[in-house]
Amino acid sequence: MKQQIGIIYQDENILIVNKPSGMLVIPGRNVYENETLVGILKNQLRQRLWVVHIIDRDTSGILVFAKNPETHRNISAQFENSKVRKKYVALLSGVLEENQGKVNKPLIISGRDVRIDITGKESITDFKVLENFRSYTLVSASPLASRRHQIRIHFWSL
After folding, report:
1. Model confidence pLDDT, tens digit, residues 40-70
2. Is 56 an annotated catalytic residue?
3. Is 70 among the domain residues?
4. Taking the model in full, what pTM does it have?
5. Separation between Cα atoms, residue 12 and residue 67, nearest integer Å
6. Domain residues for 151?
7. Do 119 and 96 share a structural domain?
């Protein structure tokens, strides 16, 4: 049985969907397009889509796709110029000392390796604790300039 992706909104220019956890947005190592979100959507809708942004395989959440090159350029520019803010909810192992704050640590990306490094690109994550549990913390996190694994690495560093 083919997987169907839930569509939140669509018009002649954009498509907004809820990506399930465990699925790549675009092809990767040993993953073909028909196994990815974009491939499944192309098959489901029978039309070409332009990827505006991606989230990690293990992350679920809302994604925007463009249905034409002009819309892709427009929305991509909004993401690049920080006109769009991404917001994540994450469950962290451990308890944070602060109830809200900002992590400002530059990240360097080298192949599959991402780490904090003074020579890296500026990377800032705003966060707010939503709820504390015995050994976990539920947070809302907003990266200002989103880098691969930014939220994961920033919280690991605290």
Report:
1. 999 999 999 999 999 988 899 999 999 999 9
2. yes
3. yes
4. 0.82
5. 7
6. 88-156
7. yes
